[in-house]
Write a structure and sequence with these properties.
This protein has 150 residues and is mostly helical. The protein has three helices and two strands; from the N terminus they run ββααα. It has a two-stranded antiparallel sheet.
């Protein structure tokens, strides 16, 4: 199953890798950066899909409303015209809800990118220094348990 997302560093077949000198079963610097980058990319794809859905539902709602108006002019039985109007209203509701999803996906995308930027600026120097030293580092969280800070 393919998710059509771009390749993201620190990811291996959709699972965060723990390589990069920090180990820790996916808690390493690159793994976390990869997971949040994938989250941001997924939110972007969701946002694009919801934009398409919203425009499609708005077009269908407009067409249903136009059909109900034509049915009214043709003196179609009012209950059928009313049903078509209800369909238009429901399609408008879907369009509005997909707009809400666009806003939520946009927020997730922005938050994930913000987290990645903060994570990068805070931990990249230490990651680079520890990789450059050629010494295997303790797993993430080790220093917190021992009362030392890494």
């Amino acid at each position: 199953m393919s998710d059509n997302l771009p390749a993201i560093p620190g990811m291996n077949h959709g699972v965060a890798s723990s390589t990069g000198g920090t180990g820790g079963g996916g808690l390493g610097f690159l793994a976390l950066a990869g997971r949040t980058a994938k989250l941001a990319a997924s939110a972007l794809f969701l946002k694009e899909g919801m934009h398409l859905l919203r425009s499609h539902m708005q077009a269908n709602a407009t067409a249903a409303l136009r059909l109900s108006e034509m049915c009214g002019q043709a003196e179609v039985e009012p209950r059928f015209t009313s049903m078509i109007e209800d369909v238009s209203t429901a399609l408008t509701g879907v369009a509005e809800a997909s707009g809400d999803m666009v806003n939520a996906a946009d927020s997730v995308d922005n938050d994930a990118r913000g987290f990645n930027n903060a994570h990068e600026s805070e931990y990249r120097p230490g990651y680079e220094a520890s990789n450059g030293a050629g010494v295997q580092q303790a797993k993430p969280g080790f220093y917190r348990r021992t009362g030392r800070r890494s």
